[in-house]
UniProtKB/TrEMBL annotation:
Residues 558-567 have a biased composition (Polar residues). This is Hypoxia up-regulated protein 1. One of its GO terms (cellular component) is endoplasmic reticulum chaperone complex. The keyword Amino-acid biosynthesis does not apply. The keyword Endoplasmic reticulum applies. Pfam families: HSP70 (PF00012). Keywords: ATP-binding, Chaperone, Endoplasmic reticulum, Nucleotide-binding, Signal.
């Protein structure tokens, strides 16, 4: 059995060693949720220190201390300018952005200044300043700590959830914030995509080859969005495997419609009502602390009115020690937000319009997001779509759970069932460059790279044919007016990057020759799965014409061998013509210049499409040439030899034709890199020295937190020890173990420390607390040690007694296994029996003597018989017994020689009733080997690549049938 278990244990540890936990973070404007998955543990939500599943995205600073979540919200009521929340929509924006102006209007007590280098948002609190990336990074650090506490493992990788309308500036800023938090971002996933993924993995069985359409509607604290998606089983052409695919078809959003705007309006209403009461002459809107109290109460009142028709708003000591109490009805709240409710259906209609689908083909409209619980919002949506709304998603956690599934898919160490996601581009991206026309005038050319609602990740290539000298081009957003409808300023700069290409003329001059032709400069662009745009590389593409003679001269022996082998595996014929350059209609300049490739499903470049077109033209030209050759040979139409014609003659004729045919030159494609310099035109990312400076500030804050935690731990330990010592000395059980002098010394020392703690020691550092604790322990530990000895000694003596009784029983049995008493089983010698008997007798004598001497001593006297002495004595006796036990296990009786069998007379048959000779067992057969227990076969779903996790483990029972559960 050990042979079976050991490999299984080793395999388990190998799996865990190669696996690591990963997390997802739904960093919302108001709440933060953290999803985790680790080897052997299904997907789950990590709890915070209050054992709650979501945490307010608030951070506060006060007197050098830093707090998060609910503690930060509590501190923010007293010191609003020191507590920062609703930060996510400030990422990647300059201080003159309309969204920053709206933030200032909602929270007038914040001191927001511009970063001197990047012009981004910086919060100033006294002498301290915090960039928006630094604040977000600290929130991500807290999320990381919650995930690590939940899994018990170090976490370095994550998937972050972002709004779909995040542009390049916001996405790169969030990635920089994650780097500050020492996190590697596996992917930025849009919130509606994460929710759609979560919805699909629990309904995998319902997905088939027919597309099913769903609309996901989200209203959060800051924004509202809607997305139309399709679910369908699609077969991969390369792997021939069929996987479910969720694809985003249309998106609509309103980035200022959300629960925060409703809460702010309710706050302002309560403030106006308080001013009307005339309890104080001070305007409540001029007092930041009063406004913070009103904001908190408005949030509570908004949630209560979602389930009740009326409720009282009440705040003690709102302003100038005046209390505030007001009855608010749901009708009044809805009247305040009347114009907001008129905007509820716009994102839904926009998503449908972009997708090109009618509402009647949508299977369900699924709600998620906290503010979709508002009854008025649900009534408006239900009336608008004319059907019931689906509420079968966890509105708060659906996105987080979908993102953590994606994190497990991207991370190493997990085996997940493939579920492909195809997101869509919201803001088209184009390339703009100058080109000189035939008249010599320069005109601006625009080419779309990534069009609206194109799937990504995706690669694109654009070719510049007419540029023979250094030039530059610009990458920018396209068609923003059509997409944003007047809100283009919220996205920031329309330009994304300026690219300067150098050494173009130099590379062309050095590369172009008589048999080398330039095919233009190709720029390769990438939109990765996080939706972040980048320029991959720029290269000069050349085509070299190589004749057969030059090819034979240039080709080395090793190249010939390599080509021969590759042809064998590829099935190419030696006589097959090489890549031939097809003739172009109208010459090389006739094709559309600088035209970007559309690609197949966002993966094929323009260069690949051009090669496919060339291959098709080659085939057509080959057919035409074959037809001409046949006509020249007398119009022969059948390639088969005529009846009676020998095959050798046909082969000879074909050889003659091959000799007479013109050998076409081979076209070889060459690529030469072109140096390029990319200068970002939007908000400068946090990088270089600026990043290092921010990292240094965060490190200093971490050190302060660690020192604070160490000090609090040391102070609590010292206070607890002082109180515990005083309480124990009042108990007879402990007091009897101490002398009068010791009791007096301990009480005096405890009193001195208590007095010091409440006076001069309240501001001491951690090292001072730890030193005083060690001093007090040095005085009291002697008494505690005596008490422990007196308490544990009876237990140890009882264990010794049982060992002695067992040894005596074994001794009685062992006496019957000597040569004198049992010649056939002479296991032990007389000396061994005598040695064990002496060990038992001496142990009994030692025990009786030491117990008697210990009982003569007082409880506060130095201990004579310690527990260690007893355990050491037990070890000596145990060693003697084990020696004899092991000898008994290894003993085998001596085998006597077997006399030869007597010859027996053989008979032709057996009499009736005689017993047949039994066949020997496998153990009796000579040369047979024992059969080991076989290792049970692995389940078909188990792999050695990593842990397989069932996301529905908490919702349904596992069964033995494959396919009855959804695996990660």
């Amino acid at each position: 059995m050990l042979l079976i278990v050991l490999p299984m244990v080793v395999a388990l540890f190998a799996t865990l060693a190669n696996s690591a936990a990963v997390m997802s973070v739904d960093l919302g404007s108001e709440w933060m949720k953290v999803g985790v998955v680790s080897p052997g543990v299904p997907m789950e939500i990590a709890l915070n220190k209050e054992s709650k599943r979501k945490t307010p995205t608030t951070i506060a600073f006060r007197n050098g201390d830093r707090v998060f979540g609910e503690d930060a919200q509590t501190l923010g009521v007293r010191f609003p300018s020191n507590s920062f929340g609703y930060l996510t929509d400030l990422l990647g924006k300059t201080v003159d952005n309309p969204m920053v102006d709206l933030y200032r209007k909602r929270f007038p007590y914040y001191d927001i200044v511009a970063d001197p280098v990047r012009r981004t948002v910086v919060f100033r609190s006294g002498e301290e300043q915090y960039t928006i990336e630094e604040l977000i990074a600290q929130l991500l650090q807290v999320a990381k700590s919650y995930a690590e506490d939940s899994t018990g493992q170090l976490i370095t990788e994550c998937v972050l959830i972002v709004p779909g309308f995040y542009g390049q500036a916001e996405r790169t800023a969030l990635v920089a914030a994650a780097r500050l938090a020492n996190l590697k971002v596996l992917q930025l996933i849009n919130d509606y995509t994460a929710v759609a993924l979560n919805y699909g993995i629990f309904r995998r069985k319902e997905i088939n080859e027919t597309a099913q359409y769903f609309l996901f509607y989200d209203m959060g604290a800051y924004k509202t969005s809607a997305a139309v998606v399709s679910y369908q089983l699609v077969k991969d052409k390369a792997t021939r495997e069929t996987h479910p695919v969720v694809q985003v078809l249309g998106v609509g959003y309103d980035r200022t419609l959300g629960g925060l705007e409703m809460q702010v309006r309710l706050r302002d209403y309560l403030g106006r009502e308080f001013n009307k009461m005339g309890k104080t002459k001070t305007d409540v809107f001029t007092n930041p602390r009063a406004m913070a109290k009103l904001f908190k109460e408005a949030g509570r009142l908004k949630n209560v009115l979602s389930a009740n028709t009326e409720h009282y708003a009440q705040i003690e000591g709102l302003l100038d020690e005046q209390d505030f109490r007001l009855l608010v009805k749901r009708e009044q709240f809805e009247e305040l937000c009347k114009d907001l409710y008129e905007r509820v259906t716009a994102p839904l209609d926009k998503a449908l319009a972009v997708s090109g689908l009618a509402l009647d083909v949508i299977n369900q409209v699924v709600l998620f997001g906290g503010n979709t619980r508002v009854p008025k919002v649900q009534d408006i949506l239900r009336t608008h779509i004319g059907q019931e709304l689906a509420k079968n998603l966890n509105a708060d956690e659906a996105a987080c759970m979908g993102a953590v599934y994606r994190a497990a898919d991207l991370a190493t160490g997990f085996k997940v069932k493939k579920f492909i996601t195809k997101d869509a581009v919201l803001f088209p991206i184009q390339v703009v460059f100058d080109r000189e026309g035939e008249s010599g005038a320069t005109r601006q050319v625009r080419r779309t790279l990534f069009g609206s609602m194109n799937s990504y990740p995706q690669k694109k290539v654009i070719t510049f044919n007419k540029h023979t000298d250094d030039f530059e081009f610009t990458v920018q957003y396209a068609e923003l007016d059509a997409v944003l409808k007047g809100d283009t300023e919220t996205l920031g700069s329309p330009d994304l990057a300026r690219v300067q290409l150098s050494e173009v003329a130099k590379r062309l001059k050095a590369s172009v020759a008589e048999n080398v032709e330039s095919k233009g400069i190709k720029a390769h662009f990438l939109l990765d799965d996080s939706g972040i745009f980048s320029l991959a590389n720029v290269e000069l593409v050349l085509e070299k014409t190589v004749t057969k003679e030059e090819e034979d001269e240039d080709e080395s022996t090793f190249q010939k061998i390599g080509n021969t082998i590759s042809k064998l595996f590829s099935g190419d014929s030696a006589d097959k013509p090489a890549e031939e350059k097809p003739p172009t209609e109208g010459g090389a300049e006739a094709k559309d210049e600088e035209e970007p490739a559309s690609g197949k499903e966002g993966k094929e470049s323009a260069e690949e499409e051009q090669q496919q077109q060339q291959q098709q033209q080659q085939q057509q030209e080959g057919k035409k040439q074959s037809g001409k050759d046949k006509e020249a040979d007398g119009g022969a139409k059948d390639a088969k030899p005529e009846a009676g014609e020998p095959a050798d003659k046909k082969a000879a004729d074909e050889g003659t034709e091959a000799k007479n045919a013109t050998v076409k030159p081979k076209i070889v494609t060459l690529k030469e890199p072109i140096p390029s310099k990319v200068e970002l035109a939007y908000v400068v990312p946090l990088d270089g020295e600026l990043f290092d400076a921010s990292a240094k500030r965060l490190s200093a804050l971490d050190q302060v937190d660690k020192a604070k935690q160490r000090r609090e731990t040391a102070l609590n330990a010292l206070e607890s020890y002082v109180i515990d010592a005083q309480v124990k000395l009042d108990e007879q059980e402990y007091a009897s173990c101490a002398t009068e002098t010791e009791i007096e010394t301990i009480r005096k020392r405890c009193g001195e420390i208590s007095e010091w703690l409440y006076e001069d020691g309240s501001d001491a550092d951690a090292e001072t607390y730890e030193t005083k604790l060690e001093e007090l322990r040095g005085v009291a530990n002697e008494v505690y040690a005596r008490h422990w000895e007196h308490q544990e000694r009876p237990i140890a003596l009882n264990a010794l007694k049982q060992m002695i009784n067992g040894s005596e029983g074994f001794l009685r049995s062992a006496r019957n296994l000597t040569k004198d008493t049992n010649p056939e089983k002479d296991v032990f010698t007389a000396v061994e029996i005598e040695t064990l008997e002496k060990a038992i007798r001496s142990t009994i004598e030692w025990r009786d003597t030491e117990v008697a001497e210990q009982e003569k001593l007082a409880r506060n006297a130095p201990v004579r018989l310690t527990v260690k002495d007893i355990t050491d004595r037990m070890g000596l006796l145990d060693r003697e017994v084990k020696y004899l036990v092991n000898k008994l296990k290894l003993w085998r009786p001596k085998v006597k020689p077997t006399p030869p069998p007597k010859p027996e007379k053989t008979t032709a048959g057996k009499k009736e009733g005689e017993q047949k000779e039994e066949a020997p067992s496998s153990e009796e057969l000579p040369g047979s080997e024992p059969v080991l227990e076989q290792t049970p076969e692995k389940d078909a779903d188990e792999t050695e690549e990593g842990a397989t996790i069932d996301p529905t483990a908490t919702q349904q029972d596992r069964t033995g049938e494959s396919g009855d559960h959804t695996e990660l």
